[in-house]
Amino acid sequence: MATVDATTETGKAAAPPAPAGNFSGADLSLRALLFAATLSGLVLLVTAKQTEIIPIALLPRLTFGPNDAKFQDSPALIYLLVALCVTCLYSLLTAVSSLRFVAGSVSTTKKLFLLLVLDVLYAAIMASATGSAGGVAWIGLKGNSHTRWNKICNIYGKFCRHIGGSAVVSLIASIILVLLAILNAYSLYHRSR
Amino acid sequence: MATVDATTETGKAAAPPAPAGNFSGADLSLRALLFAATLSGLVLLVTAKQTEIIPIALLPRLTFGPNDAKFQDSPALIYLLVALCVTCLYSLLTAVSSLRFVAGSVSTTKKLFLLLVLDVLYAAIMASATGSAGGVAWIGLKGNSHTRWNKICNIYGKFCRHIGGSAVVSLIASIILVLLAILNAYSLYHRSR
């Protein structure tokens, strides 16, 4: 037991001067959380499909027909799907890179800067996708009497719950990306003092 | 003339060691651009108002009535207005702070870090507002046959041009904010090397 302790102590001492070492643990856990959030958002979005028999007003008589609600019907939701896909992939790739940070093999300032730039870009992409999906989902939920856009969530309840859940998870992913950017910025600031 | 030259030379030499001095000029011009973009977006959004005499289907007969289109009718556009307002104010405040950077009186690393954090936050807010307004504007432009949301831009042409212009200018403002964050990150990275 004593030898093991000694080894870890030596390992600690032999590590390069890394005041940002304690941040890379937080970085890794945030990236794992981002992966979980984007993956669950993707699953919620892809499984949002509902078929309902609804009345179709065909004058002079009223007929009933099956009607599908699926995310492919809205460009905003397709954009959300693409944004969630690329962010999910990004979180996976950077988590691997973050793991190497924790292992202490690579820990350059340049890498921190590049990660910061990518985090800012992905945060902007996720925020805009969340905004557009949220804007459309709000119309689906509440409708808009001024433009006579009817609400659809009273008919497609399950579909709306899926889209709403996906939008909330995307909002969480955007917040995580902003936090990651701030963490990397702080890490860079810590090194430049 | 010679004395003036000498004074400026001395002024230059007496300035504190500021390798980031050349970035603060770019920072200031980007912030001025951001102010111009958000202000024009605000003006476009607030002046988006149009009254049209349109047919209202009141069975059994068709009547015609005046109908207003204004940005207050959509929560997404109200959110865009708020985001443009706060970003406009932010750009003005930070441009003043950036001016003091250029003058060389304050130029600490801490200030760079704080500006970077604020830039990232505002970029996320502007991107989400642009996304939600863009999503709603797209429905107004193209409609959605699946949910039977009719397009309104064939009736309210001038209103739609204003909203579209405001959304484009907001997109430009979001891109400027991302660029500002990257510039500040680079400045911080430059100091930490």
Task: Outline the structure in words.
The structure is a homodimer of 193-residue chains. Chain A has one domain. Helix content of chain A is 72%, strand content 10%. Chain A has helices at 2-14, 21-46, 75-103, 109-142, 157-192, and strands at residues 49-58, 61-70. A two-stranded antiparallel ribbon of chain A has the order 1-2. In chain A, helix 2 (21-46) packs antiparallel against helix 3, helix 2 (21-46) runs antiparallel to helix 5 (157-192) and helix 4 (109-142) packs antiparallel against helix 5 (157-192). The longest helix of chain A has 36 residues, at 157-192. The radius of gyration of chain A is 23 Å and the shape is elongated. The relative contact order of chain A is 0.17. Mean pLDDT of chain A is 82; it is low at 1-21. At the A-B interface, helix 4 and helix 5 of A face helix 4 and helix 5 of B.
Count of distinct strands of chain A? 2
What is the straight-line distance between the termini of chain A? 39 Å
Number of helices, where a helix is a run of at least 4 consecutive DSSP H or I residues of chain A: 5
Judging from the principal axes of the Cα atoms, what is the shape of chain A? Answer: elongated
Calculate Rg of chain A over CA atoms: 23 Å
| Main beta-sheet strand count, sense and barrel state of chain A | 2 strands, antiparallel
Organism (chains A, B): Eleusine coracana subsp. coracana
GO cellular component, one term (chains A, B): plasma membrane
Subcellular location (chains A, B): Cell membrane
Protein name (chains A, B): CASP-like protein
